[in-house]
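## Example pair
The file below holds two records. Each record gives the amino-acid sequence first, followed by its structure token line.
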Amino acid sequence: MYVVEIYGVEFVCSRICLLQIIHGANSVGKVVMVIRSFKGYYFKCSMKKASIAFIPVKYGRRHSANSGVQVITEDASYFVPLQNIRFIRTKKNSLKIRAGNSLFTTEGIRLDIQDDNVRAIGRINFTESDKIRYDIMGPFRFLPFLQCRHSVVSMSHLINGRLMINGRKYCFQDGMGYIEGDSGYSFPGEYAWTQCHHEDISLMMAVADIPIMGFHFIGVISVIKIYGHEYRLATYLGAKATHIGDGTIVVKQGRYRFLAALIHGNELKLSAPKKGRMERIIHESACCTVRYRLEWDDKKMFDFRSDMASFEYEFMS
């Protein structure tokens, strides 16, 4: 989806609608038109005592986009503007992003970032991505006018290598990685998101207020992998958020009940997209304590606390 501005008036349109607008504008002569959107990926790298993340993102006008990389550690976050981040298509259709002197791929990260606030260098190698069975958006990927489209590139993979960020060394030996992406024109106004690895469990969940065609609904997407077996909770499968409040989310789908509750956060400010511009401030705890519980027919499948979870909570309640 794109935000289009014509003579100062903004509206949202799909790619097909955009092409029709461009064709119409060309037929009537000179039209002042601005097209904005965003696209970014989230690379999380965790080990026993630390968790860091990198977000290469491209945003703004279609033909003169801005770009940058957000660097997130346990106690600080930085946004480093970069020129012309490129999303490169590969023969294997794997992810490859060139951001200045840095490279982000599904095979690993080569990091070389420097500005007045942050110096980050190093290299990390990834094992093969653990992909989900099918698109996390399900049939919703065909819906027009969505603010944001989510993707899950890898639920988990082993990471090995070394990084140095502002003089601090990070040594990863069989650490855990996670990759996801977002594209569109804005993050949802209210939402919650969490991700975690714990022993042989990897999970992610997002719950958001979704506006579409003048209506709103609470959408749910979640994937939980236990010993390699995939469980999916999603609106298009009948999932509903039965409780949202005070940093706690409860989702039910059939006989399944999933709880994620923030116990101790460590919020850092991040830049987020709003109408194709990185003008919004959200808050993420990249390394925090969260309780997770999954039940089937009131029988516990797991119940654990993790100090290495990530959590964003942008609901008002």
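Second record, same layout:
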Amino acid sequence: MIRTRTAAESGGHFPSPHPKQPHLDRTAGRLSRAMLGLAVVALTGLAAALPAAASSVSPAPLGSAVNGYAIVTRNEASTLVSLDFNAPGTVTPIGASPNGATIWGSAFLGGKLYALGDTGFYTIDTTTGALTRISDAPPPVDQIWGMTVDPTTQTLYWIGGAFGERLSTIDPATGATNFIAAISGLATPINITAIAVDAQGQLYGIEQQNDNLIKIDKATAAATVVGPLGVNALFTSGLAFDPKSGTLYFSNLEFAGNGVYRVDKNTGTATFIDVPHVGQDEADLVALAIPLTCRTGDTIFCNGFDATP
């Protein structure tokens, strides 16, 4: 996902663009999705250099259903959808966010779906898509790229900053944020656009400038490269672990191989699954979230260590 910062946000000066792409500002003065589409069409030179779109690849066969949620973004609006991550070709709209609220990260904690976006920090009703505001969004300087939960500590982490270089936590009760540190240890420039934590508490991210899966130290924000994805991660928009199988999924937006992929967390290798659609239209998925479904009578270590079955 591309972003360009406004002059006001940059102290009257625009930052030097990263060599792979500019950046789309998700705050005041941002480009609309329609404008982004026109801008993408104009980047013919870049398009020629990119790998073929994922829609030309046959879906990969997978196992049992992995049911979860995502946000479809279109024209600066957010719609909650449900999908089977192992068969994401068709997604089901649940409900749209009111007043143009835009969501860029979500995660399940204690059986609730939390969401973070430009307009605030919320819980989302997974049956209607309705938002309940907890707090305002973090300051504009901390632009929001993604959010995840550590299932071992019940801590919500989010990645922000102009280029996804700032790791922070957010209090689920109040929305208060705590900046941990800037991401370090990677070759610059970097742009981390999605994060997820596995069942063992290890934080992972997608570094889209160099198309790598990375590990991030939650205490220091020091990062190391796991390995190349093997696909263009130019518009990476979501990352989530299935808490049952441990499978890692990520989503890419249109133009850079729109689709849902599974990722080998040990090597970084990504495997295309399918292109998501709402009806006949391709869907841009962000803010992936997969809940832990409780077994009958299982009230321990369920829904994020919550005691509710």
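Notes on the second record: Helices lie at 33-42, 44-49. The longest strand covers residues 67-74.
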